[in-house]
Amino acid sequence: MTIATTCQLGPNGPTVSALGIGTWAWGDSLYWTYGQDYDEAQLQTTFATAIAAGVSFFDTAEIYGLGESERILGRCLQQGDQPAQIATKYFPIPWRFGSKAVQKALDQSLERLQRQSIELYQVHWPPAFLLGQTKILKTLAAAYKRGQIQAIGVSNYNARQLRQAHALLAEQGVPLAVNQVQYSLLERRIETNGSLAAARELGVTILAYCPLAQGLLTGKYRPDADSRPTGARKINPQFRSQALEKLQPLLDQLAALGDRYDRTIPQVALNWLIAQGNVIPIPGAKSPAQAQDNAGALGWQLSPEDVASLAQLSSGGRSLAAAAH
Hints:
alpha/beta, TIM Barrel, AKR, oxidoreductase, Aldo-Keto_reductase, NADP_OxRdtase_dom
C-alpha cells in the first residue's frame, strides 16, 4: 500500500506535506526560550533538515515573536533552493477590522517572509463581531483572487463560527480551506463539540497545533525523572509529577507501539493524528533532531486496531490549555 506523504488544503487548495512544522517558538523569548537554548543559526539548520526529510510545510503567524518568526522563516527561505509551503496568520483586534488594515497586515507578513504569495493565510482567532469577520474575509477573498493567497483558513473556530466563515467566503466564490485547532491524543474536544464533524462536512482540512501537547507526548517528561520543561511551561500543572503519573499508561502504550513499528513515541502520536484523515499535524521543532524525528511520522501507518486502542486509552485525557497560541 502506498502511504500518502502529501495532503491538499481544502477542496481545491495547494498540496502540502502531510506533516508540517509550527514555528511559534521561532523568535519567541516570552513563552519559549529563543536566544537562550537555541538561536537563528540552529533554526536555519532545523529548516534545512525538515526540508531534506520531506517536511516542507511551515506554519507561522505575525504575532509569533512579534513578527520575528516570519522574519526568520523568510531568511530561511532565501538560503535554499528547495520549495517550501508557507502558512501565516492575521491577528484580529477591533481596530484592525477595516479592509485597509487587513490588507496592510497581509502585505507586511509577505514582506517579512520575502514572498509575493503564500500558500495559506489564516484568521488567528474568530473576531468578536460578525461585521469584523465579514470585512476580514471579503478582504482576504480579494487577495485570494489577486493571487497573494493560495488558500484561506481560520484558526480556533468552533463549529458555528466555521460554518459562518465558510458561508461568507462562498458568497465571494472562494473556498474555506483550513481550520487550525488544538488536537492531540490529550486534547480531543473537536471530536465531541462538532468542530471536526463540521470540517469534514465542509471539506475543510484540520491543521492540528500542539499535536504533541507541548512535549507531554514525547516521553521526555516522566514523574520519576529530573527533566522539566523550560520557559513558561515550567508553571504548567500538567508537567507536575502527579499529572505525569496519570499520563504514564498512555505513554507506555505509545512506547509499546513504537517498538512494534520501529518508531519513536512522538512519531506514533503524530501518526495517530494523520490516521484521522484530512488532518495535518504541525508539531514545533527547535532543533534538527526534532525536525528529523517529526518526519518519521510520515510514510507508514498504524493499523486500525492500534488507532482505536490509542483512542480508547486517551478518551479520558485531560485538555491542555492553548496558552498563548
